[in-house]
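ESCALATION

Customer reports they have been waiting on this structure for their group meeting. Please prioritize. Original submission:
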Amino acid sequence: MTEYDVTKVDLMRERVSTFVRDRVFRCESRLDSGGPDARELRERLREEARAAGLWALPLPSELGGGGMPLDAYASIAEAEGASDHGPAALGSAPLVDVTMLSRHGSARVRSAYLSGLVSGDLRTCYAMTEPDTPGTEPLLTATRAERRTGGGWSVTGRKWFVSNARDADMVTVLARTSGTAGDRDGLSLLLVPTRSRGFRVVRELPVLGAAGQYEIEFDGVEVDEDHLVGEAGRALTVASERLQLGRTLRALRWVGQAQRAFDLMCERAGERQGVRGPLADRQLVQQHVFEALLALRTTRPLVYEAMALVAEGRDAHVEVGLAKTAAARTLQDVADRAVQVFGAAGLGPDTPLPALLRTGRTARILDGPDEQHVSSVARRVLRSRQEAVTPA
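Update from on-call: job pushed to the front of the queue and completed.
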């Protein structure tokens, strides 16, 4: 942390935490509803974040962000992520896209879009998973991008479970530009403006009742040559880099939400009175508190270790796989325990626990299911050990 010492980060984290708790928490149900009211409310929160000096903290300062390095931002990401709406309200949501386009976008793309992404005037989404193709098998991607006679590309295919596609101005799409299904080479990433002819939002896909995921279609969408992200046919290199940062950020946010569920559970245990005294005096409630605290205390270091490696630009596949899986499980576990302590009140609309539990459950599937990360991490560990003992 060259520019941000520990004291400065701690103070900023407290300010962010206060903003999310006092301003964002109480607006969550309205933000969840979508529509014009939600957009107006989101913009008001953004203006308040800008006025408070909390806007886009990890984004490049030369583009209007706070310029905070990733290792310093880790604890801020956890505080922002205590609400699903925190990153968008505070302007950090496009961090993964800004990082990707800054490193791999053409000069025209960087000039045309980066400032708008940082300011919040432009929104992006990422389309990788397809209805008829396993999300864990990108080599089987069926969406295709063909070379046009006059230059550029024509994209045809369908994607689903694309977050925030309805409000996005651009979508980064994974498409096959050469070879056949199963080939490692031949996949490319293209940045597609959503106003392009042939682009269509097919339908919304509520996830356990929650909005925000969509199915989209590309019907011969024309894309300029300079909207290729990275090299043609080498998408997996860029996608891997993107996924490592994206999964680590989400893991940090899930830890923030798990901490929120834990705090609610402890408050409930202390305040709820029965004929035998407060819930906090009951051993089974104490066990819920202990197990939840153990999960948090063992998960948080894994996630911060992953972020430190990602910030240094080092290979972090094992650490990110551990962090993503542990954080998703911890959020589901802690939220479930909190619901149990709350009883029927934890199932209703008066607490955020149903949403936190839903997020925890979906986190174990979206962005790579547990099984994928378990297998991937184990293979890497076993292969590295075998290589270490095999004579040259």
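Sent to customer with the following note: Residues 235-271 form the longest helix (37 residues).
Escalation resolved.
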